[in-house]
Amino acid sequence: RRALMVDVYDSEIEHGDDVVKHTFERLRELLANDRFPRSACYDPAWIMANEMGPNVLWLTEALTDAMHHEPGMRVLDMGAGRGLSSVFLAKEYGVRVWANDLWVKPEDIWQVAREAGVEDSICPIRAEARTLPYAREFFDAIVCVDSYAYYGTDDLYLGYLAGFVRPGGQLGMLVAGLPQAFEGDMPPAHLTRAQASGGVFWDPKECICFHTTDWWRRHFEKSQVVDVEVASDLEDGCALWVQWERARAGGGYSGFPSDEETLVQDDGRYLTFPLLVARRREVEIGTHSTQFRLP
Asked: I need a labelling partner for 257 at 20 to 30 A (CA). Which of 72, 74, 162, 174 fits?
């Protein structure tokens, strides 16, 4: 396996207007976690340079450990961001990946794929989640790493997305969420309080889509197009999130305000990562794309 390691100890990272110098060994130390041996093989400065949220390699490794992948499979990576999850899939499992994202330009994903040496295995696509340009039943598997909540809470959506994976193929998602529902449906004060970093963790415009694993299981099951095989909270999900925030801060990275303060206060009471793996049933799924077209 070709690892994305560097043979120099100082890496210069550019993210927006920020240019931060990191010490390679310091970042490796901050991101060290025995639970993710595959992720440990990748250059931590490269991870930081392309991050768009909690450590996507850890999340992708946790999700794919619960799924089945074989070399040559066609995999749709929904919400691929800058392509780190797609690179991981291509390098670790030898699959062909369609890296689908709305916010990141295909050229940027392509550059990341080329740097990783997997340009022959990754096809970057810019497409909205409700108007996907793929043939029905084209994919062997679909993965959604920290993205599904932004487009998948619609009761009709899973029936639409599942139409792009072959019968018997798997759909996996891992997303930020809740280990238990809020009392009275309102977030506790520590999630809405301003942090010393200047940020507030709970933005209702985005976090309203946070749900429990049980909620997601019921959401998937009621579609009647998939069978849920795995539904669990990522073990120590909040603690992993804290480690990631500390790595960003300790490595000198300042792309986004830190949420460490809120995460430490929460200590896993209300923040985690629900993980679900489902398998498409051997049923006919109609074409519902007209119900999801943007105005």
From this structure: 174
- Can you read off the two tokens belonging to residue 94? 């030898």
The β-bridge relationship of strands 96-101 and 74-78 is parallel
DSSP state at residue 183: G
| Stated pTM of the model | 0.90
- What span, in angstroms and rounded, lies between the C-alpha atoms of 42 and 155? 37
Please state, as a whole number, how many other Cβ atoms lie within 10 Å of the Cβ of residue 17: 6
Contact 79, 86 (CB under 8 A): no
Contact 217, 237 (CB under 8 A): no
Tokens of 137: 């039943």
Q: Where in the chain does DSSP place strands (E)? A: 10-15, 18-23, 74-78, 96-101, 122-126, 139-145, 165-174, 226-233, 274-280
Tens of each residue's pLDDT in the chain, 295 residues: 334 543 333 444 444 434 344 467 889 999 999 999 999 999 999 999 899 999 999 999 999 999 999 999 999 999 999 999 999 999 999 999 999 999 999 999 999 999 999 999 999 999 999 999 999 999 999 999 999 999 999 999 999 999 999 999 999 999 999 999 999 889 999 999 999 999 999 999 999 999 999 999 999 999 999 999 999 999 999 999 999 999 998 877 767 789 999 999 999 999 999 999 999 999 888 755 445 443 3
Count of residues making up the chain: 295
CA dihedral 282, 274, 173, 48 (to 10 degrees): -170
Alpha carbons 196 and 208: distance in angstroms, whole number: 23
Burial (Cβ within 10 Å: 0-12, 13-18, ≥19) of residue 254: middle
